[in-house]
Amino acid sequence: MCSQIGPWSPTKADASRVQYLDLSMSSLEPRTLEHALRACPALRKLSLESVRLSEHAQHLVGNCKNLETLNLTMARGITAEGLTSILEGCTGLQSLNISWCNLSEAALNVLVTMLPPKLQRLNVSGARIMTDEMVARLVGRCPRLLELDLSDCSRLGVAALGALGALRRLEHLALSRCYLLPPHALTKLSSMTSLQYLEVWGMLQTGSLNALRSALPAIQLNQFMFSAIARPTVGARRTSIWGLRTRD
């Protein structure tokens, strides 16, 4: 464990060169997690899935200036101030999963106004208080998105679909269980020429799903039930971490 010399800046002797760190599902004392984050300022990819984060830990994540991938799925304790620190510091983020974090309205407003403009992949599923206006602000902030998961954002309506149409590079969109979106409105996604995959799990009966397939012949429907955005391991065989082999 590194010696504590101050809240923000470890010495060269303390600092680790670790770039990939997966602490998913870990049961860590807040001070232990803070020590780990303080000692690893060179992190490029970090997973804190289902981990409780103190506000200080969130500030320390923001100190990882080289961070490209961040998985906060079901992380607990994320605040508007903590999220501000993360997004102010991690301006090079390309992939962020902040799904099912029970974000407050204040935290969601921070998210949609401060996301890095170069972000390519975002999962904010389970944000049940996400509004159409928030989606419009998100789209305006992140025009380069390739993949976006808004599943279980149950307040979203037709206006959100209109805003999403501005994402000219979007290849994969998940709107599963967004029950306020009628099937006829989904057909408007045909104007998104880059869109290849659309997830609408749990929303349509077989007949409506087949009709939507006919209306969107260039888009594959319901190919991926679970999102892999920012997650270090995918599938049953845990033999890699963010695509790097760990064992044969």
Automatic annotation (TrEMBL):
Residues 53-193 form the F-box/LRR-repeat protein 15-like leucin rich repeat domain. InterPro entries: FBXL15_LRR, Leu-rich_rpt_Cys-con_subtyp, LRR_dom_sf. GO terms for cellular component: SCF ubiquitin ligase complex. One of its GO terms (biological process) is SCF-dependent proteasomal ubiquitin-dependent protein catabolic process. SMART domains: LRR_CC. SUPFAM superfamilies: RNI-like. Pfam families: DUF7885. PANTHER family: PARTNER OF PAIRED, ISOFORM B-RELATED. This is F-box/LRR-repeat protein 15-like leucin rich repeat domain-containing protein. It comes from Euphydryas editha. The lineage of its organism: Eukaryota, Metazoa, Ecdysozoa, Arthropoda, Hexapoda.
